[in-house]
Amino acid sequence: MSTTINTQGRKSSKGRESKAFMSWPWRNVSPVRRWALVWPREHGAWGILLVSLITGAAVGLSSASNLVPLLWLALAALTAFCLRTPLENSMPKSPFRPRTQAEWRWVKATASTYILIGVFAGVMLWFDGALRLIWMLAPFAFALFAVQALVKRLGRAYRLPAEIIAVFGMTVAAAAGYIVASGKTGNLAIGLWLLNGLFATNQVLYVQFRIGEARDGQHPSSIKRKRIFLASQAVTVLAIVAGAYAGFLPGLALIAFVPLFVRGGVWSFRTGQAPLRIHRLGKTELAHAILFGLLLIAASHIP
Asked: Which of 185, 201, 222 is the last residue before a domain boundary?
């Protein structure tokens, strides 16, 4: 009798394991954690990536025949960006590390899907002849993200430098968009990457410093942040002027940064603590990103 019971128990256990293995990977995963494990949570990062890609493509677009390769490029860039989340969450010290076998299956299945889509987009770019022009950008971007991951592991004090490194990794999309849209490489591709990186760095610093001000009030550290921010804007101006003089950047590129400089100057010289509405801040930064893109595209097409 006991043998029969054990056999039935083993059979039922195997049946449950088989059903769990054959079920959809997202089943038995909490809806709250399901997308947090595999979908990028940084709304600002989406804006940085898309604005970079669109501005690069719009500046370089020379023929309607290049629109299809641009679609494959966008698909490859987005899947690579999404792949970052499950890979980071799989790291030992990640706060969103999978906890159960079901969560691990979900993360692995989603990461594999991202990879398959990215490989498909890369193959289509190869057939269109665009991959030979931009293949070197992929290892460069991945190298920047690897450096970012190493810097983040140094501790919380290095969080901001890590974000800025990641920003320049994402804005490689501007160079890729320009090259695919124009069908050629050149100094302007490097210039567009630099401009989008400087713009995104300004946004990251502004948002982080505003959050720090809301937390610390009129503490001396808040005043120090404002001085650092003003210094960063001065460095940005010098970099753009030097790049334009060297021929890497459009001569009127500085126009695209005027709204950012005005916003940053008003905040930096304002006395007293400015009220922070985080949702409104996100919307205004999105508006600045769109305006920056439009101004940069216009400045690049003016002879």
From this structure: 185
